[in-house]
Amino acid sequence: MKLEFAALNIPLARCLQTAAVLVGLFSFLLMAQVCTGIMAMLIIYDYWFLYIPYLTWFYFDWQTPEQGGRSVNWVKNLTVWRHFKDYFPIHLIKTQELDPGHNYIFGFHPHGIFVPGAFGNFCVNYSDFKKLFPGFTVYLHVVSCWFRCPLFREYVMSLGTVSVSKKSISHVLSKDGGGNISVIVLGGSKESLEAHPGIYNLCIRHRKGFVKIALTNGASLVPVFSFGENELYNQVSNPEGSWLRTAQNRLLELTGLALPLIYARGIMPYRKPIYTVVGRPIPVQRTPHPTPEQTEQLHQTYVEELRKLFDEHKGKYGIPEHQTLVFK
């Protein structure tokens, strides 16, 4: 009987791409726990000359994730991220020119399972971001708990991420002269429970904090839709009212983390192209004390622009004409 080793027939480029995505998944799923374990071992075995200087640094550096972070260019230039981008592959599409004299909020949709479109386009230096949007500095806002984890916080900050807190977003958007972009995945962890292939349910009806921050800082709003984000994994059926969704919602309330039950190529996502389309900017007049009516009006305008963006581009990326967005 002749044995065949399929891995030997796989091109080196594809192997490197798979390895790169495994690195990304490890960073997303396990690296925080590993970093916590390392710090615990240093303390247990009394390597005081390592943990005391670091924890002192940690204490005095606590506010950095809310003050623009600390990106490190050589980390964003690591070749592994080029292979990560090419695995799917990930594309960035611009539909309108943006004025680098202004600051912007990019509302990123949908969340999907682990938002590789946001990471691949706005965190590392292998996307077309700098070519398409010259003169801008981009910040991806992520859950604040990541920055409370020793060691891990240094890694995620090095990639250009900052806290998603109100203080952090306001810090980015308050830059005089413009040129800053805050990217916020508005659906959050809750929306990951809606991430099924061919379904486009967005958790945005009650997400209005970003609108208030835009008004307060006079930052223009830009809807961004990442086509293909929901196609990377299958998720076990969890309709509203089911015992599984009830348990998932309860876990989300208790921990702030969702637990979608997913499957694809094992833990690996499917190789599906991702097209992140940046829509038309919505001009926002600076309003230091916005009223509820002003907030609601701008929120409705944003939702309608997001709907138009999806409808205008869905046909290009294989989505049936009858498919619509559902806002929850």
Automatic annotation (TrEMBL):
EC number: 2.3.1.-
A GO CC term assigned to this protein in UniProt: endoplasmic reticulum membrane
Pathway, per record: Glycerolipid metabolism; triacylglycerol biosynthesis; Lipid metabolism
Transmembrane residue ranges: 12-32
Membrane-protein topology: Multi-pass membrane protein
GO BP annotations listed: diacylglycerol biosynthetic process; glycerol metabolic process; triglyceride biosynthetic process
UniProt main location, coarse: endoplasmic reticulum
Catalytic activity reported: a 3-acyl-sn-glycerol + an acyl-CoA = a 1,3-diacyl-sn-glycerol + CoA; a 1-acyl-sn-glycerol + an acyl-CoA = a 1,3-diacyl-sn-glycerol + CoA; a 1-acylglycerol + an acyl-CoA = a 1,3-diacylglycerol + CoA; a 2-acylglycerol + an acyl-CoA = a 1,2-diacylglycerol + CoA
First-level EC class: transferase
Entry's Gene Ontology molecular function annotations: 2-acylglycerol O-acyltransferase activity; diacylglycerol O-acyltransferase activity
Subcellular location: Endoplasmic reticulum membrane
Keywords: Acyltransferase, Endoplasmic reticulum, Glycerol metabolism, Glycoprotein, Lipid biosynthesis, Lipid metabolism, Membrane, Transferase, Transmembrane, Transmembrane helix
Stored InterPro entries: DAGAT
Family note: Belongs to the diacylglycerol acyltransferase family.
Name of this chain's protein: Acyltransferase
Gene encoding the protein: Mogat1
